[in-house]
Structures are given as structure tokens and as C-alpha cells.
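Subject: Sanity check before I submit

Could someone independently write out the C-alpha cells for this chain? I want to compare against mine line by line before I put it in a report. The sequence has 168 residues.
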Amino acid sequence: MTTSSSETIAYLGLGSNLDSPVDQINKARISIRGIKGVTELAFSSLYISAPMGPQNQPDYVNAVMSIETTLSPMALLNELQTIERSQGRIRGDQRWCARTLDLDLLLYGDQVIDLPELTVPHPGMVDRPFVLYPLHECAPRLYIPGKGNVADLLEHCPIDGLRRLESD
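---
Independent answer below. Compare away.
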């Protein structure tokens, strides 16, 4: 596991639409908190959204988590993928298919990363209400490198059926 001497604020997208999605998100949150070198800063409300891609699958439950980490971007990605696998995620060739858990590294400080296995800022995030609305909830003044302020981006991103899941 690669760590750096300084701490970086990162933003993670969490999504699930199989096997009790709310439970999957809550379990993932606990697992992320348990990663050495990671501290939770904020966690958004849970949101329900229609699936991207094939519509013959259940709606998604999504959230955004803000963390502070000493892990490198690749080490953090590896930890997130380990959590996905532990919760039954099977990676296939088809994009946007139903899944028990999807963990995305949305932002890592103000870095722009373009590697075959990792692109940050996460591609398409500024067009996805299920990312922007919970991200704005966690960090309303956040600047997304190369894209703009999250509040400004939100003004141009229709809510498109996204709804906040009421907590018990």
C-alpha cells in the first residue's frame, strides 16, 4: 500500500442497486472508514436514481463521501475495489449493469489523473445528478479541476428524477 506524507481530501461516489442497496452503502461506508490512512469528513444523504444504461434493472441508491487520506490515488482505488469485491461486486465487460456496489474515486485533491485504470476527476460526473447533488451537499463550495464550481455545475444539471431517500 502506497502512502504519502501529506493528507489529501478525496471524494468518493457510492452506488448500489442489488441485494439491499441501502445496507450495501452503509456497509461500504463502514469499510471505507476502516481503511488505514482514511478519515471520514462528510457523508451525504442517500439518493435514489434511475439506472444509467439498461433500464431493466432496479433503481440505484447513491451517496457521496468526503475523506481525508494519506493513501496515493492508486492505493485508495485498490482499497475501494477490495471493498467492492468483498460485497459481491463482479466486474464484467458490460457497462452500467446492475451491481451490489460501485465505489468511484471522484476527486483526489486538485489532481487531474489520466491513467488507463483511473481518471480523476471522474469522467461524466458533472453531468450526473446522482453525483453532483450529494457532492454539493458535502462540499457546496468545491471546485472541480477543469470543470468549475460544483454549485455552478449544479445549476446546469437537471435533477432528472433524482430523489433524496428520507432517513428513518
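---
OP: Matches mine. For the report I'm noting this point. The chain has one domain: 3-164.
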